[in-house]
Amino acid sequence: MCAFCLKYRGFILFLTFLFYTAYHLSRKPISIVKSELHKNCSTVIRPVDLNITDNDTWCDWVPFDQDNYQTLFGVLDNSFLVAYAIGMFFSGIFGERLPLRYYLSVGMLLSGVFTCLFGLGYYWEIHSLWYYAFIQVMNGLMQTTGWPAVVACVGNWFGKGKRGFIMGVWNSHTSVGNILGSLIAGVFVSSAWGMSFIVPGIIIASTGILCFFFLVESQFLCTDKKPLLPNGNQSINRSISTEIPEIVEDHSKAISFCGALRIPGVVEFSLCLMFAKLVSYTFLYWLPLYISNVAHFKAKEAGDMSTLFDVGGIVGGIMAGLVSDFTGGRASTCYVMLIAAAPMLFLYNYIGQKSLGITIGMLLVCGALVNGPYALITTAVSADLGTHESLRGNSRALSTVSAIIDGTGSIGAALGPLLAGLISPTGWNNVFYMLIAADVLACLLLSRLVYKEIKGWCGPRLRG
């Protein structure tokens, strides 16, 4: 590959990292704003000119001022997540049949519009649950344009050699987006929570414009060319590089949905991700509120503290990629991290709020163990399966495989926050028991693949 191609490959990695950072950045504000929409008003200084009769709910945002506010928050979360899960199965199919540059650009622009519309509800003084739920549904559908497209771009530009490490580093965009989204939303949450949505909405819309002008979705393959001036001025010939980037068009037929399901490992990893993502997204949407309720932090402080979970996720994703590259065991790496995550979740619930140091340490460790397998499956594993040897070189399966895996995972992402909203009124302990059970189920679903990998490692020695 020529020097130009190598440089542009790095640029594509950075560009797609920026795009999906913006996607996650625009998803995060809802979890930060929850503790502002419903809070303990008896501890808030009341304006002297405000005539109210209920001291407990006067500062809450209607309709989240009632005792069922956690259920209503669950409705908002699942309006987004169910739409995202359903839309993801179709998004991959569209992504393989439409120009990715246009697909991503339009998706980011419309996602920015709907994110801003949620925030404008604050300034327009909209108090209808259905308005916010509708915005969440539409935003969820628009957000499905991101993942299959960016994974397809990166998978086409990078080979399998160090895919786990490269995509582990690249996949930190998820955690970086969550961190930036939390910090940006936290700046405005206590003064004007509408801006907590409007600013991220403007950011993702801006990256959509950037995508339209700069994304190159096809891989450049560098080939040697004959001299442009045969038998002519050799000094001119030498001054012209013989390595010319050439865009090679892919005329292979797009794979069907059922064909993608028949690829070995797709079903197991998809179901595993469903439970792994259930845990991850429950933390994404409910961790700030949990910290606020249990540790009695203010909304901004709880949001800032929750970013430590995502910092741990960055480390976990990179470590999972490195270990799986070294061992060749994608399933085994996920299995070990998921097994370790279960007791750590139990410990975090029981001792995580004992002191600030313990809270920081436990959030970092839990973030690494929970998000490590999630990051590995959605990136390196998806890219491996999308270019599986059974496809006989068909490069157009990557987007569909990524969509199936992430779409199945998104079912868990929708179930997690919903169950948390239903269970949390009975106590946070029960929420954590649910998360631990999901982790164990994720491990069990990988058992066959783990056995196959171990057999592959030990087989030659046993035969020897």
Description:
It is a single chain. With 464 residues, the chain is an all-alpha fold. The chain is built from 18 helices and two strands. Strands 1-2 form a two-stranded antiparallel ribbon. The chain is globular and about 75 Å long. Residues 15-455 form the Major facilitator superfamily (MFS) profile domain. Keywords: Antiport, Endoplasmic reticulum, Glycoprotein, Membrane, Sugar transport, Transmembrane, Transmembrane helix, Transport. It comes from Nothobranchius furzeri (Turquoise killifish). Belongs to the major facilitator superfamily. Organophosphate:Pi antiporter (OPA) (TC 2.A.1.4) family.
- Measured between the Cα atoms of the first and last residue, the distance is 40 Å
Give the overall silhouette: globular
| SSE sequence, one letter per element | HHHHHHHHHEHEHHHHHHHH
- What is the number of E strands? 2
Gyration radius, to the nearest Å? 24 Å
Classify the helix fraction into a percent range.
over 70%
Strand order of the main beta sheet, please? 1-2
SS summary, helix count:
18
Mean pLDDT: 82
- Runs in which pLDDT lies below 50 for 5 or more consecutive residues are 220-251
Task: Identify the quaternary structure here.
Answer: single chain
Strand content: under 5%
- The structural class is mainly alpha
Task: Summarize the biggest pleated sheet.
Answer: 2 strands, antiparallel
